[in-house]
Design brief:
This protein is an alpha/beta fold. It has 2 domains: about 10-225, P-loop containing nucleotide triphosphate hydrolases (Rossmann fold); about 230-290, Alpha-Beta Plaits (2-Layer Sandwich), CATH 3.30.70. Helix content is about 35%, strand content about 25%. The chain contains 9 helices and 14 strands. It has helices at about 45-55, 95-105, 110-125, 140-150, 170-185, 195-200, 220-225, 270-275, 290-305; strands at about 10-20, 20-30, 35-40, 60-65, 70, 80-85, 155-160, 190, 205-210, 215-220, 230-235, 250-255, 260-265, 285. Strand 7, helix 5 and strand 8 form a beta-alpha-beta unit. Helix 2 crosses helix 3. The protein is elongated. About 35% of the residues are buried. The chain binds adenosine-5'-triphosphate (ATP). Adenosine-5'-triphosphate (ATP) binds near residues 21, 41, 45, 46 and 48. This is ABC-type uncharacterized transport system, ATPase component.
């Protein structure tokens, strides 16, 4: 049940084109055992394509996906739990029946599949829905069934495409605790999301992709470390242009008397402080810790600048 220590899902130099569109360009990253990995990127950046290739429902043009050091094939795919972004359930089948069927399809004996389906429906708050057709459930409940479908065969790896989208706050809590539990049991867990506050709070590491490439990967603190230093200054008497004479300093945000400035490597923060004090009182002068949303915007806007 528990993934072996040291088990890693390796995404290695995947390339994928759809005609003239380059969807993936040497996409490379690892998701380690026990890790919650947030996979983020703009619309069309290549998240779904990567996850579909990792699950084996889409062929790659080149590159490889490995689990525990071996290329993922028909057999090892059974150790992966996959939740697609589009609903992949049989609408007319009843919830429990469907989960049992999917468990058996992945090699479970009927009795074990039934037991697991009962356990997951209870855990995910679906015990009153077991005999309902999937199409009669609300979208959020259909998503819970979709999660149960990814988990029913007790996979060693989880790949989830936008599992949190459209969930109410209670369902977000349930989803979060289930994913945490699977990671704590040793599974690599990768999920895509556009909810960056949630990703920041929840993930051990984050990968930001842009135009089919991994452009920033690490803990949020590591990503902050790669970004230029930002300083927040509250100087009520300062007028626009007050920092123009400080080499390597740029105003990136300005709201009332509060300015956020980005400093290039080697720029002198003391020179900036002197410039701020020259305008009058300074109520705040502190390093600004960018949120993931801000780091994401910086990385994505470099695309435009290039
Ligand atoms: N079947 C397809 N045929 C042609 N182009 C496709 C196909 N599937 C995806 N693409 C293109 O490949 C690129 C990557 O798409 P993908 O769905 O992987 O992005 P995504 O990061 O998951 O986006 P989103 O956040 O919008 O879900 C996009 O340019 C998309 O238009």
């Amino acid at each position: 049940m528990t993934a072996a220590t040291g088990s890693t899902l390796e995404i290695d130099r995947l390339n994928k084109r759809y005609g003239d569109i380059v969807a993936l360009n040497n996409m490379t990253f690892d998701v380690r055992a026990g890790e919650l990995f947030g996979f983020v990127g703009s619309n069309g950046a290549g998240k779904t394509t990567t996850m579909r290739i990792a699950m084996g429902v889409l062929a790659t043009d080149s590159g490889e996906v490995r689990w525990q050091g071996k290329p993922v094939d028909f057999d090892t795919r059974r150790s992966i739990g996959y939740m697609p972004s589009e609903r992949g359930l049989y609408p007319k089948m009843k919830v429990l029946e469907q989960l049992v069927y999917l468990g058996e399809l992945r090699g479970m004996p009927a009795s074990a599949a039934k037991k697991a389906a009962n356990e997951w429906t209870e855990r995910l708050g679906l015990e009153g829905r077991r005999k309902d057709e999937v199409q009669k459930l609300s979208l959020g409940n259909q998503q819970r069934v979709q999660l149960a479908a990814a988990l029913v065969h007790d996979p060693e790896v989880l790949i989830l495409d936008e599992p949190f989208s459209g969930l109410d706050p209670m369902a977000v809590d349930v989803m979060s605790s289930v994913l945490r539990e699977k990671a704590a049991a040793g599974a690599p867990v990768i999920f895509s999301s556009h909810q960056l506050e949630l990703v920041e709070r929840f993930c051990d590491r984050v990968g930001i992709i842009r135009a089919g490439e991994m452009v920033a990967c690490g803990t949020v603190d590591e990503l902050r470390g790669e970004a230029n230093l930002r300083i927040q200054v509250d100087a009520p008497a300062a007028r626009p242009g007050w920092s123009d004479a400080v080499p390597g300093a740029r105003v990136v945000e300005h709201n009332g008397s509060v300015y956020v400035l980005e400093l290039d490597t080697g720029a002198d923060d003391q020179q900036l402080l002197a410039a701020a004090m020259a305008t009058g009182p300074v109520h705040e002068f502190s390093p600004h810790r960018p949120a993931l949303t801000e780091l994401f915007r910086n990385v994505v806007s470099q695309e435009v600048a290039q």
